[in-house]
Amino acid sequence: MNPQYKRLDRNDAAVLLVDHQAGLLSLVRDIDPDRFRNNVLALGDLADYFGLPTILTTSFETGPNGPLVPELKAQFPDAPYIARPGQINAWDNEDFVAAVRATGRKQLIIAGVVTEVCVAFPALSAIEAGYEVFVVTDASGTFNALTRDSAWRRMEAAGAQLMTWFGVACELHRDWRNDIEGLGRLFSNHIPDYRNLMSSYDTLTQMG
Amino acid sequence: MNPQYKRLDRNDAAVLLVDHQAGLLSLVRDIDPDRFRNNVLALGDLADYFGLPTILTTSFETGPNGPLVPELKAQFPDAPYIARPGQINAWDNEDFVAAVRATGRKQLIIAGVVTEVCVAFPALSAIEAGYEVFVVTDASGTFNALTRDSAWRRMEAAGAQLMTWFGVACELHRDWRNDIEGLGRLFSNHIPDYRNLMSSYDTLTQMG
Amino acid sequence: MNPQYKRLDRNDAAVLLVDHQAGLLSLVRDIDPDRFRNNVLALGDLADYFGLPTILTTSFETGPNGPLVPELKAQFPDAPYIARPGQINAWDNEDFVAAVRATGRKQLIIAGVVTEVCVAFPALSAIEAGYEVFVVTDASGTFNALTRDSAWRRMEAAGAQLMTWFGVACELHRDWRNDIEGLGRLFSNHIPDYRNLMSSYDTLTQMG
Amino acid sequence: MNPQYKRLDRNDAAVLLVDHQAGLLSLVRDIDPDRFRNNVLALGDLADYFGLPTILTTSFETGPNGPLVPELKAQFPDAPYIARPGQINAWDNEDFVAAVRATGRKQLIIAGVVTEVCVAFPALSAIEAGYEVFVVTDASGTFNALTRDSAWRRMEAAGAQLMTWFGVACELHRDWRNDIEGLGRLFSNHIPDYRNLMSSYDTLTQMG
Amino acid sequence: MNPQYKRLDRNDAAVLLVDHQAGLLSLVRDIDPDRFRNNVLALGDLADYFGLPTILTTSFETGPNGPLVPELKAQFPDAPYIARPGQINAWDNEDFVAAVRATGRKQLIIAGVVTEVCVAFPALSAIEAGYEVFVVTDASGTFNALTRDSAWRRMEAAGAQLMTWFGVACELHRDWRNDIEGLGRLFSNHIPDYRNLMSSYDTLTQMG
Amino acid sequence: MNPQYKRLDRNDAAVLLVDHQAGLLSLVRDIDPDRFRNNVLALGDLADYFGLPTILTTSFETGPNGPLVPELKAQFPDAPYIARPGQINAWDNEDFVAAVRATGRKQLIIAGVVTEVCVAFPALSAIEAGYEVFVVTDASGTFNALTRDSAWRRMEAAGAQLMTWFGVACELHRDWRNDIEGLGRLFSNHIPDYRNLMSSYDTLTQMG
Amino acid sequence: MNPQYKRLDRNDAAVLLVDHQAGLLSLVRDIDPDRFRNNVLALGDLADYFGLPTILTTSFETGPNGPLVPELKAQFPDAPYIARPGQINAWDNEDFVAAVRATGRKQLIIAGVVTEVCVAFPALSAIEAGYEVFVVTDASGTFNALTRDSAWRRMEAAGAQLMTWFGVACELHRDWRNDIEGLGRLFSNHIPDYRNLMSSYDTLTQMG
Amino acid sequence: MNPQYKRLDRNDAAVLLVDHQAGLLSLVRDIDPDRFRNNVLALGDLADYFGLPTILTTSFETGPNGPLVPELKAQFPDAPYIARPGQINAWDNEDFVAAVRATGRKQLIIAGVVTEVCVAFPALSAIEAGYEVFVVTDASGTFNALTRDSAWRRMEAAGAQLMTWFGVACELHRDWRNDIEGLGRLFSNHIPDYRNLMSSYDTLTQMG
């Protein structure tokens, strides 16, 4: 028996965004803030683009942890929004688990702040509950590279798949012919090198 | 059968602090000394805060290895304290194993200096003896990143879970409502960015 | 005689943007592309915000070097735009020097791609011609750190002042009371950490 | 039962070169361009030297992704060349899979751009289809080290073996006596340090 | 004429602490937060220990920039405390300059957040005004290494001397015989490696 | 069933030193040459100190690869010395395998140059042949960190244990009481920080 | 009086290549060997392209230092070639200085191995003798970054200008219109990113 | 007037070794301990080899700072040895300055621990007193790269020349013909890559 390729499927995947809050973001130091901000917004955009059920959750928004990043809040006005009263692991919150179940999806794409807690805890719980878990490593952040590595290894050992937002988008899209312009716009908006390729291409072909 | 989430439980966990001695600390070069000192003291504080049984052990305190870090000694005046007469692997010392058994706990949180010896050897022995082992990577130190990586991989391959003190604290605490002030103080004392968040928050809310 | 503080003055400064072209940007590898893109756009925004005379120049836009970054083109529709027919050093182009002279300014804020050529050559020429030169290091890019360091040292040895877009903005603004909202918006749009501070502040003060 | 050594065999291996296109190469930032170019050409040379069936594939050559690197095109004029009409995962293209099957080989040596998509997707599919997969890590490139690590871990967890072009060449060659001069030339052309050893050796022995 | 050694003199030096505010500290990413916090408090302790006139200043404490780090506020209850109403360069604030003048000192030890603005601007102004300026590089922080280097070079080119808190303390103290215990305590409290040396020494000598 | 702790035993271990040749060492760039030389000699010293059967092998000593490092040759004058006529994988050489078998040991400690070939190939073969393999990562070297990581992962996936010379020595020694002076001398000769601890200790205790 | 722009002039510049020998190159560890080899050959190509008088010198070619890199020897068959009998500083060799004088040039472009000796010594001597010195930093190599930085600072303090081969080429060429194809070929051969830009451009324009 | 080349002269240079003490060495973290130990001993060997007057000084040898590195003490049994009773700057100690004056030398080669204090302070004093100062950067160590850079810049701004032990040796030796074997032995003992070159050379030439 060969190992199975557990492949993301846009009809079976949901997105969980955990604790991307303005205060907690000041704790993130394993990735440059410009790059991190871009990755988080790209993940939001791809969830939107592929029409994936998306769940937002926060921890103590009115305390030092601060409010959810406004762009995410604005992008998913109708998404389940679970302001947890105290549970550190979002999966310990019944409303959160209920919202996940309500999606009917079996593949969970998770990102959050900070990686070894807000991402790893629900990821490990979800795997135990039978879900396929895909961690978006570049839209999750934490104190430093050492703590990040520990968190990644723990999740990986439990069977989580580590991906980045770009890999997630490509695996969901499958074939450019499904929508060249839409995916191209997503990439152009969040990958400066890709945007440059397109600018050069447009200039040259418009000249012809 | 899904993989089980082996989750730290404050009623089933004990802490083993191995050879955090003043002389040996001069060998630690895979982590900045300011950060390392902070992490070790944070681990001590969390063991104290959660009331976890804690065991101290040292190797040749009166020789070049030097005395145990005084803060740890002071923090656990009644803890079992095993000054090993020669065993490099603490688990080869019967008193140490007896002290572990006496806790009645099955989850062992281990940190020490240097990682590939004083942490890895007892970790591998404890796993063989049937314990669940959680290595606190950021409160353990060694010569350089290369030796650290080799040690982490060896422990991980045997089933140890790699965590950091922050993840340990959060997984033990479970829910902020158990004690907001106590956990907040622990974080504020050992995470400068968190302290700053709280300072700003206090200033703004006191103004209101 | 004390050394004089050569301080940027919004009434005496002009901005020169040299060869920020889509193709040439693929050569820039001494800075992360997300951060670099942000810095270049921030410099454009500050030039706009402070109403500084701004000059654009490019080299072979219709060849492999590619077109000017569209955002810069759009932001300065009426700025002098010198598409150099071949001169590598923009200062060797009479139209460019004439455009600089026409501003009547004596302080030149320069950024471009690549640093050791498109920035350094006109910077050295401008210094020789009697201008005060301020190089925006984080809105200029090149092949790698080694070539960047060589370029910085050469310009510095000739008397250029090395700054970043943030320092330039602060030195031009002088006093927050001149316009709190405008400068705050500039920072919020280009410094994720600052944006987060403002989000948290707004949430807390709106709750009060 | 001991673990089996899955060893590359020149009679059972084929090479898949995926999307080494001039435009996409500008996205590669996890490896220095001089080194990357050298590694890719070395992989081409070794495929040629060992007479391995080689398959080329590209994605939208006439768009922003750009043409295949000309040297690879020139080196394999008769190789199957699949210009995919839209499939992101080359394994989703029937012609590609047919070309792989036609080689009759069971060991696939894969390299491409970018690693987490163009390499990882067909690698995971090929493993599922029963092939042994060897990823040439240093002839594959992507956005940055973080995305690279995620891709490597995902493929490794599925059973892919990570190698470099040098290890591939040595494992295929088995014994220097099969052809000292040919392998020596391959190394001398692509490993500057090895070339220097040979230059020194030649000078000294020609003097004797 | 040989170059003069401009040497710090405890009878002629004053300390300026500029904008070490809880919010602004979240912008500091060119130095690890544990280390930075330690350095800032060490500078406060040395100012206290040597009895140097110390001046505190902040920018918009009740806004997003946040309050002064509480420890500094507590350590200098009687120091001049200038909450600037808007001036970005502290030297543009008359009260601040008056406070500096009132010390009667000619050597200014400056640290602050962020380096290229809150440190560099008053440093350049003070040099122009005839002061000797010593920048405490490791108690000043900013966005990243690139912006830090630009700031250091600009100040250095103007004649500022770059030092660290440890060098400042040693140069002020001159001779251990002035007070072994006091300086030893300062070092032990802020240099973990030094603390370890002292712990080992005390253990060994107490055993004798 | 708990995972077994496969522990090095001085009565069951042998050391294989593969291709530490003067020419090949110029290819090693993943570790500083001062540190690497020290580690290789430390491994030789520990093999000698513990009286482990040791096997030397080289590839084309009289060609560009150069002679075995003279210190290793001198240290093991009576050890089996297999100058391979062409086999790249030492395990493909019958004399080498015979020498390994003749030791009667089941634990193989392997180090060599370059890691992904001269170490990984015999390590994978030895595992397949039923041996326990311990790779000394810090006495093995290769082209760069990327190729090193690929080699480590491949060996690890096959069941090799990654260790460093220091961990090997400690695991073999078990208890300081077996010989304090001998192990202390080994450490003092190859760990500068340990040497310093001993120098300080000796000075203080001799004063007493 | 403004600082003068000392600008490279193809009619007044000569190139000195010092000790790029196969053995000495194994000492170079401050730059990746693939990149370094490329830079050295690029410098050779540009000297050739601009027709600059070029002087080669070596130290003990028949000893451990090894022969001059063959490509350089082949490229300049008629250049003065000074095999120094023992002088470490090439400028201490009368034939070398005579060869320099014979060029009649006043601008010396110097590169070599190792930087702090073979480059720095003749650079300092040439400056003292009244020449303008331009060090090609990326075609010079040494033991590590620390020794490189010391060498650069010493030369810079004496007035040498630090450049890279790309900057040298651009400053000599002045205007693309002098020869677009020739300079383009030089860049395409030695800058992979530039080659890719040209490949994409050619493909698109040939399609039109 | 051209800048003068201040060149080390073996008849006019002396070596000052400041506080290379076993305890203080544990503070050195800006350089790998294996490399640092090698550099310090190499500097001792070269002082010995060139017969340069050498002066040793220490600070509180019987306290936590620990004893002078034993090898240095053994190598210079008859050298002036100033155990300072308290002065932090060695130049504040009259015996030290008298010992320097007694050498009659005007060029001072200085190394020590830690760089920004034990090296920088006497270096600045010596420059003021009219000496030419050469700092051996790689035989001096301190807390981290940030503090090192500050120290280097301060000394450089005052006119000190930054060199490494290798550059010092080469500049003193001038011509290999003065003693090929002696200098070769110095290099072979302290530069592993050079030792390898010599091993290969010897093997090949002895075969001839």
Automatic annotation (TrEMBL), chains A, B, C, D, E, F, G, H:
Superkingdom in the source lineage: Bacteria
UniProt keyword annotations, A-Z: Hydrolase
Entry-linked InterPro entries: Hydrolase_YcaC-like (IPR053152), Isochorismatase-like_dom (IPR000868), Isochorismatase-like_sf (IPR036380), YcaC (IPR048239)
SUPFAM superfamilies associated with the record: Isochorismatase-like hydrolases
MF-aspect GO terms: hydrolase activity
Hydrolase as UniProt keyword: yes
Keyword Isomerase among record annotations: no
CDD domains: YcaC_related (cd01012)
Residue span, Isochorismatase-like domain: 14-165
Alphabetical list of NCBIfam families matching this protein: C_hydro_YcaC (NF041461)
Protein name, per record: Hydrolase
Organism of this sequence: Nitrogeniibacter mangrovi
Highest classification ranks of the organism: Bacteria, Pseudomonadati, Pseudomonadota, Betaproteobacteria, Rhodocyclales
